[in-house]
Amino acid sequence: MKVVAYNIKDFEKELLAVANGKVHDLTLISNPLNLNTIHYADGKEAVIISEDDTLDSKTLRALKEHGVSKIITRSLTTDHIDLYEAQYLSMQIANTPYPDRTPKGIAEQTVRNLNLWSAGKCVGTACCCLDGCSKVEQEKVGGENV
C-alpha cells in the first residue's frame, strides 16, 4: 500500500520504518497535513496523521481527490477528523486504541492497521467509521475480534 505519514517527529521515523519492515511504500514527512502540503498524498491510498492535523470537510475532499481512501490517526481520539464527511466520502478511518501508548507501540499499531487493510480485513477496535461496518461485526462473530 502506498502511504504518506504527516507530522512525523524525528523519534518516530525509525520506529515506523522498523514496524513497517519494508511492507508498505511509506513516505515519512515532518510537515503537518493541510491544503499546502496535501500534494504529498497524491497517488497514495492512505495517510497517517497525528492529533495535531485537522481534517475538516475541505481537507477530506481534497484528500479524496488525490486518491486517498484510508486515514489512520496516531491518536486515541478522532475529534480532529470530520467523521461525517469521511463517511459521506466512503473513507475508512482508524485510530490507535490499544493499551501500548509508547511511540513504539503506536508505530506498531499503525502498521498493523495498514496490514489489515491490505489484506482486505477490518481493523476491528481501531475502526472509527460511522457506517456500522459489517466487517467489524463479522470479525466479532467469527471470534477473531482484532
Automatic annotation (TrEMBL):
GO MF terms held by the record: D-lactate dehydrogenase (NAD+) activity; NAD binding
Q: Record's SUPFAM superfamilies?
A: Formate/glycerate dehydrogenase catalytic domain-like
Record keywords? NAD
Q: Would the keyword NAD turn up in this protein's UniProt record?
A: yes
Which residues are in the D-isomer specific 2-hydroxyacid dehydrogenase catalytic domain? 18-98
Q: Does the keyword NAD apply?
A: yes
Leader sequence range is: none
Alphabetical list of Pfam families matching this protein: 2-Hacid_dh
Q: Taxonomically, which superkingdom?
A: Bacteria
Q: State the protein's name.
A: D-lactate dehydrogenase
